[in-house]
Amino acid sequence: MRSAGLLLSTLAVLSTAATATAETPAPEVTLFQALPVDSARVEVASSVLSVEEGGAILAGWSTSGRDTRGFILRVDDGGHVLWRRDHGGAGSHLLFSIAPSPERGKYVAVGMGPATPDSQKTEGWIVTFDATGLILGNTRVGGGSVRFTSVELDGDRSLIGGQDARGDTTVAIIHRPNPNSLFLDWKTWSGGPVTRGFAAVPAGAGHAVLVGQVGREGDEGDGFVTRLDGQGRPVWTKAFGNGPGRQLAYHVSRVAADSSLLVTGYGQTNDPARGVDGFAARYGADGAERWFATLGDGAVDRAVHGITLADGSSVVVGYSRPSDATDDAPAWTTIVYGIDASGQRTWTRRLGEPGRESGRWVAAAPDGGLWVVGQQATETGGSQVFVARLAPASKAPGR
Hints:
Blueprint: H1 4-22, E1 29-34, E2 42-50, E3 56-64, E4 67-75, E5 81-87, E6 94-100, E7 106-114, E8 122-130, E9 135-141, E10 145-154, E11 157-166, E12 169-175, E13 187-189, E14 195-202, E15 208-215, E16 221-228, E17 234-240, E18 247-255, E19 260-268, E20 276-283, E21 289-295, E22 300-308, E23 314-321, E24 332-339, E25 345-355, E26 361-364, E27 370-377, E28 383-390
Antiparallel strand pairs: 1-28, 2-3, 3-4, 4-5, 6-7, 7-8, 8-9, 10-11, 11-12, 12-13, 14-15, 15-16, 16-17, 18-19, 19-20, 20-21, 22-23, 23-24, 24-25, 26-27, 27-28
């Protein structure tokens, strides 16, 4: 088990030295479009999916007062909203992730909603819809307190990752629904009494890779990456941290070329001057670490999503706030990082103005560019979603 605090603080020195001389110009921002929002509503974009026909589909949630509703919307290549659908009644309804459905031309979004309007318990939420936003299915999956936080296309089914709290125990879950049984291939994994699953990807032969956090006291915990076989048994597990502080693996994406894995997350360092740093790590299908890159600059930095491009380089999105601001302050700024195939940071790009829950997702566009979604503060005290496009790396200034 590696000590993430020591590792992150050590790598921070190496990363800072390397990027001071090695960073190249960041890709040009070709589009930055803030989406309209009314009054003091707080809107959060949780994911973005590029669409072959042009534009992109976003999922997220919108809060006003005590109620939160999930939304899906589609924008064209200019960032203009073509349609928007809000879903959910009283209580908190959130959509965290979106993916193509096994049925071509259809999509799946997953999240969570209250078991009843006044209940503290939650149900997993699955919404299927077509390219016009027409809802085709709206399903709740109960248990203890279930939340679905990721969805990926897995052959002729969807692979859903999340967590389920039952009494004093929380377990990470893998869920592969089909039309005949919502609970088909429901697998759980626990590294401790409180095991939170944040994301999962298919790994072939019925296997899946889960990432998340095994909790300790309070908000402290260790991040984990684990591969499960078709029966839900762990094949290998990697852990981040065994000391004080909070460490977590927030997302995992599978690299098609060689079935390796890109893991993003963040954790407390042992350097008080640095505080929290984001990270990105690359693992082989066998769990062997290929590289580990620290992402941060001395503020509170979080890395939450990343993708690997055809040339082996990776792009990671996250957000950062000054060390003297609180987590709930509208002080987070979206940051996008470029990382080469060896794990060296090559460029950094800030997007938009400070806001809440910034920089959530990055997706490749058909032209080789990138879609990025995040949110920034509004003058009325809320936050509004923005969509941004970055040019292909080959079109960056100076290249």
